[in-house]
Amino acid sequence: MVNAFIIHTLLPGPCRVLYQQVYDVEQRDTTGTKSSDSDLRFLRKQKVQEVASEVHSEYQFRRAVSSRTVEQDMQRLSNEDTLPEMEQGFLRLPEMDNMIAVWQGTGNTCCTLVCYETENRMLAENVLKILIRFLQEHLRLLHQPIEVANKPDKVAIVLNRFLPGGQLLFMNHRMVRQLEKEMDTLMKL
């Protein structure tokens, strides 16, 4: 089960969350009573921002170690019509019990899945690649990341097809094609 899907920036400077979908709905505070809706929304938003910031920090560290610059990343991104080679990784999230972040990013955009550490990481990585491919196709995610914030309904359509209710699906190429046809129909409406 995926607890959250996040799209955020990777540019040097502060990390900005462009889109978030949280699937873990009910949380309790330390006293065991239910929190108000506004408190839960604030806590979710804060946790999502913390995860995005940790992934951002890891990406910046990897870029510094490999001596790559932002300009090199953006040039590599603009020279390719297909999906470029993406930096990817896994992070344990100590502030969230038994959770990991599976992320893939390039240029100035990153997508992250927050999952239980018992989830199949290879499956999470595969689903994330599929999500990125279709988000790039329909929203130009990697070239124009602000489109994600401007058209959240299209992001939701892609997520509902390939990550229904936060469930990771085993998909062969036939199933991906079928889901793609259904999604294309919904996008035209």
Automatic annotation (TrEMBL):
**InterPro entries listed in its UniProt record:** AP-5_subunit_s1
> Which GO terms of the cellular component aspect does the record hold?
AP-type membrane coat adaptor complex; cytosol; late endosome; lysosome
- Kindly state a single biological-process term from the GO annotations of this entry: double-strand break repair via homologous recombination
Task: One Pfam family, please name it.
Answer: AP-5_subunit_s1
The protein's name: AP-5 complex subunit sigma-1
Species name for this entry? Mizuhopecten yessoensis (Japanese scallop)
